[in-house]
């Protein structure tokens, strides 16, 4: 059976990343798209050759050809749209962050569980070969006991994305809910550990017009004892990106691993050698879709579950609270 997807949100990421990922997955197709602006939805459908532009969310969810939805609307809409999809019996792949509060995210998990549908979070970075290799090396003791980690993921937000992310806190704008959620999820995945507390500072360096943060630096503590520094920004054009994990017997030093289009480099350094891992860049969105489909079919699990999305949201919200209060904040779900 062909699994039909409905796009909730006529977004840039849906067009440029998820559309091809779904179409390249066997027995999958995008059959409908819903935008709050019907004319925009129709133009989007025509441009992308999606056969149907829904006139409303209810119209999309009532379509029997839609078996699953991909939600990429602004963050404050995810909660209600996921609840509606679950009630309609549709599986849900939702962009991060799942919601605007932990309570909302938990009700999304509960609703999907009660409806018997899959809820997955689109944390695409954990699908990268580089992060999977780092996870395996750490689990196999290649660097001994992990001590500390560092993620640098400061970028310059391109003009086409400089809308609500910079001026709408009510929609979940700001660099923490946009990027830190990904970094914390990647740390959780690679370390196979949970964050327990965070202390952070944020900045407004001119891009955000003062309503939300456009830069953040935070230190998270994990339940395996690791402390991890995370630097994110919308304002830094030349930093590059990377991920380091340092242990008692060695270090993993990775570059170009926080952006899926880059060529990854991973170096394993120990007392006796330096080994550069041969890792090809891979299509992280397609792998995420494939694992979502496997979960729907009962043959696997999503790359990132709803529970994973809840953890990353809780960590990001704690990061924001710490920056606001100047205090260390505990993380729990």
Automatic annotation (TrEMBL):
Residues 4-123 form the Gfo/Idh/MocA-like oxidoreductase N-terminal domain. The keyword tRNA processing does not apply. One of its GO terms (molecular function) is oxidoreductase activity. InterPro entries: Gfo/Idh/MocA-like_OxRdtase_N, Gfo/Idh/MocA_oxidrdct_glycsds, GFO_IDH_MocA-like_dom, NAD(P)-bd_dom_sf. Gene3D superfamilies: Dihydrodipicolinate Reductase, domain 2, NAD(P)-binding Rossmann-like Domain. The keyword Kinase does not apply. Keywords: Oxidoreductase. It comes from the Bacteria. Residues 131-252 form the GFO/IDH/MocA-like oxidoreductase domain. This is 1,5-anhydro-D-fructose reductase (1,5-anhydro-D-mannitol-forming). It comes from Thiothrix eikelboomii. The lineage of its organism: Bacteria, Pseudomonadati, Pseudomonadota, Gammaproteobacteria, Thiotrichales.
């Amino acid at each position: 059976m062909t699994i039909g997807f409905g796009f909730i949100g006529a977004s840039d990421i849906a067009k440029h990343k998820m559309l091809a990922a779904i179409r390249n997955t066997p027995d999958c197709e995008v059959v409908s798209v819903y935008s709050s602006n019907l004319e925009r939805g129709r133009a989007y459908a025509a441009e992308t050759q999606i056969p149907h532009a829904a006139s409303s969310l209810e119209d999309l969810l009532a379509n029997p050809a839609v078996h699953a939805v991909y939600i990429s609307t602004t963050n404050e809409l995810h909660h209600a749209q996921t609840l509606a999809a679950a009630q309609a019996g549709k599986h849900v792949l939702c962009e991060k962050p799942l919601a605007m509060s932990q309570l909302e995210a938990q009700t999304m998990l509960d609703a999907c569980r009660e409806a018997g549908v899959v809820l997955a979070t689109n944390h695409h970075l954990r699908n990268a070969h580089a992060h999977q290799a780092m996870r395996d090396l750490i689990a196999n003791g290649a660097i001994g006991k992990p001590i500390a980690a560092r993620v640098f993921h400061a970028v310059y937000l391109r003009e086409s994305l400089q809308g609500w992310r910079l001026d709408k806190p009510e929609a979940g704008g700001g660099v923490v809910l946009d990027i830190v959620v990904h970094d914390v999820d990647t740390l959780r995945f690679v370390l196979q550990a949970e964050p327990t507390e965070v202390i952070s500072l944020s900045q407004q360096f001119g891009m955000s017009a003062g309503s939300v943060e456009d830069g953040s630096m935070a230190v998270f503590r994990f339940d395996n004892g690791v402390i991890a520094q995370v630097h994110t920004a919308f304002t830094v054009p030349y930093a590059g990106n990377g991920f380091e994990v340092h242990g008692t017997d060695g270090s993993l030093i990775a570059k170009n691993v926080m952006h899926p289009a880059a060529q990854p480099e991973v170096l394993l350094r120990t007392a006796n050698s330096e080994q550069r891992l041969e890792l090809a860049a891979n299509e992280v969105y397609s792998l995420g879709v494939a694992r979502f489909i496997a979960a729907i079919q009962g043959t696997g699990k999503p790359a990132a579950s709803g529970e994973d999305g809840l953890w990353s949201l809780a960590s990001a919200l704690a990061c924001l609270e710490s920056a606001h209060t100047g205090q260390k904040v505990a993380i729990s779900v």
